[in-house]
Amino acid sequence: MPGLSRRGFLVTAGALAAPLIAQTRKRRNVLFIASDDLNECLGAYGHPLVRTPNIDRIAKQGVRFDRAYCQFPLCSPSRTSLMTGLAPDTTTVYNLQRHFREALPDVVTLGQLFQKNGYYTARSGKIYHYGVPRQIGTDGLDDKPSWNEVANPSGVDRRREESLLTNYTPQRGLGSAISFHASGARDEEHTDGMVASEAIQMLEQHRGDPFFIAAGFYRPHVPWIAPSKYFDLYPLNTIELIPFDESEMRIAPELAYFTRPAHWGMNEKQRKDAMRAYYASISFMDAQVGHVLDALERLKLAENTIIVFWSDHGYQLGEHGQWMKQTLFEASARVPLLIGGSGVEARGAGSARTVELLDLYPTLAELCSLEGTPSNLHGRSLAALVRKPDSRWEKPAVTQVRRARPDGAVMGYSIRTERYRYTMWAGGLEGEELYDYRSDPRELRNKAADASLASQKRRLRDELDRILRRRGGADGQAR
Fold first, then answer.
1. Helix, strand or coil for residue 183?
2. Residue 12: pLDDT above 70?
3. CA–CA separation, 115 vs 109, rounded Å?
4. Going from the N-terminus, what domains does the chain have, and what CATH number goes with each?
5. How many CB atoms lie within 10 A of CB 261?
6. What is the CA angle 171-140-367, rounded to 5?
7. Distance between CA 36 and CA 100 in Å, rounded?
8. Rounded to an integer, what distance in angstroms lies between the CA atom of residue 312 and that of residue 91?
9. What is the pLDDT of residue 273?
10. Looking at the predicted structure, is the pLDDT value of residue 477 above 90?
11. Percent of the chain topping pLDDT 70
């Protein structure tokens, strides 16, 4: 069913005809909360400085996944993979321009599956890819069949305050520049404040319907524009830089690095300013999440609603001299993932199991007892882990990234287990990486050439090859 305008949803007999689940049984709702470019700088993940009391509320109501990984550390490929349940080599979305329906016109997205089961599905803000900030207020690369209703707000951060930015990397486009502004506007005047308001209105208007409502927040994606009170939470003298030595730029193969020169040439003061702005944007986004959670409780919907909080990929703040995403290092590939609320038996627990964003599609299908789930999904339901977070679990996570070169693009693939990460570039022809996180949590020693770990590397490579064959990958050469 095509997506309608913000006020255009009509519950008609034909709109949700023949739902696959009987209407006599009360079904679990889903509040699906996304953040953009968020790493694990959250109270729930033990960050000593960043204040996120509302996201922490979700963690207390469910399971915090400590080893959750995206499938591609770039917005559109990652979000497409999550919403289709298919790996990037199957969707063939590797950039910010291609829409997945070019290759998969008939794929059933997560939103469509909920629709087929009689749910009202709606989106406020960014779930599929939008170019930020340019496409704020538009549909971007949205998928209209996924939703009954959509909202595309645009606040002062987009309409009025971009000209006020401090920009430390003006050579980069605004969507990937280290830029920030402490705004004098109120929360509700910003795009993310409006995203929360629209999501709350959706909850209010459809409190009697089974729903899958997605609230997609833009922060902490650059440009980091947030009300000044959130900047005030983080005096510059409280910001500690990520440790870095120039030798870290030589640990891995050349293709492993996205940021060159290290830190894009920013000095220590500029790096602290950037981290402060990132933290402020997180706390601002967290406050908006809190408004939505408060509404869920006020409307007495919390008892029957699953709450999922996720980010499309991680974010580097100077690890290995890198900033933003688009690497296969831990800080770029790992994401915060929380599942709480109705049907989640474990409360306030953490899981050390290695999971993927791909796993969310089958997880929600199982927790909500949806029928007609596609049989070709690449993920595995996390239902066992939300019941018992330390359940036996042997599934690794795979992340990939694409590198453009004059002689043709090259793919890097990385497999992560609870202890190791193995990465190969161009099928290993352009280099390999192997890290043992038990002894080297900061990825400072690449053990790919260590003879004592040769058998371990071979096991990881064989497992990676097996997964890639199933998911459409091959020799590491980009398509």
1. strand
2. no
3. 10
4. 29-392 (3.40.720.10), 398-471 (3.30.1120)
5. 11
6. 120
7. 20
8. 16
9. 99
10. no
11. 94
